[in-house]
Write a structure and sequence with these properties.
218 residues, mainly beta, 4-stranded antiparallel beta sheet, two-stranded antiparallel ribbon, flat
Length: 218
């Protein structure tokens, strides 16, 4: 049964919902026609399945269950104190950011932060007895991770889908801090909108919703 944004109707959900509470959604199954939602295997190529997207796939791939984080919450001011107390770091991008030390924030190049092993492997021919004893006549599975994918957000005016497929994408998130009063739907920082459902004030932070589409799942 397809998921929907909390508070949206079935009609809204079918037409790319933005109504309802803001929730985090899975980049692999959130936007309509996503790689992991509503697919049918139509053939096989070199041992790998070939999929066709189900046009009726309405999944929003919701991640937020009440114990996760999204937008809300609104993180209090002053940002330097409350972001740290909340266990976050300013400019943190869920699904992409990671730390190589206590202070050095890096960006992942594969989807290892959003899916186990990067979410994908490929079936290839064995490389011969000289490599782990796998004969060339046998098939083996090798890691082939997707490109880095941010956790997406939809709701409170933010759309589930960034546009037509086949490269279905959505809108990622980033922890941003207000320098003044910011109403819902207005930019907190360049490229990231307040989707908390309430106005925030100077020094408060939220996980803002990106105005630029997330990368295609490749």
């Amino acid at each position: 049964m397809p998921a929907s944004l909390p508070g949206s109707t079935a009609v809204q959900n079918a037409a790319n919902p933005s109504v309802g509470l803001a929730v985090l959604i899975n980049p692999f199954s959130g936007p309509k026609g996503s790689p992991f939602g509503g697919r049918t295997i139509t053939s096989w190529s070199a041992g790998n399945p070939v999929y066709t997207n189900d046009a009726t796939n309405l999944s929003t791939g919701g991640l937020q269950t009440g114990i996760g984080f999204g937008s809300p919450p609104v993180i209090g001011a002053p940002a330097a104190t409350f972001i740290k107390e909340g266990g976050f770091t300013d400019d943190y991008t869920p699904g992409v950011s990671y730390f190589t030390s206590a202070t050095a924030m890096q960006s992942a190049t594969t989807a290892i932060l959003t899916a186990i092993g990067g979410g994908k492997s490929s079936i290839v021919d064995g490389t011969g007895a000289g490599n782990n004893g796998t004969p060339a006549s046998e098939k083996v599975s090798v890691p082939a991770p997707y490109a880095a994918q941010p956790i997406l957000m939809a709701g409170q005016g933010g759309s589930r889908d960034a546009g037509a497929g086949p490269a279905f994408t959505g809108f990622g998130t980033k922890l941003v801090t207000a320098v003044g009063t910011v109403a819902n739907g207005v930019a907190v920082e360049t490229g990231f909108l307040n989707r908390s459902g309430v106005s925030i004030t100077v020094g408060q932070s939220v996980f803002g919703s990106a105005t630029a589409a997330s990368p295609a799942v490749t």
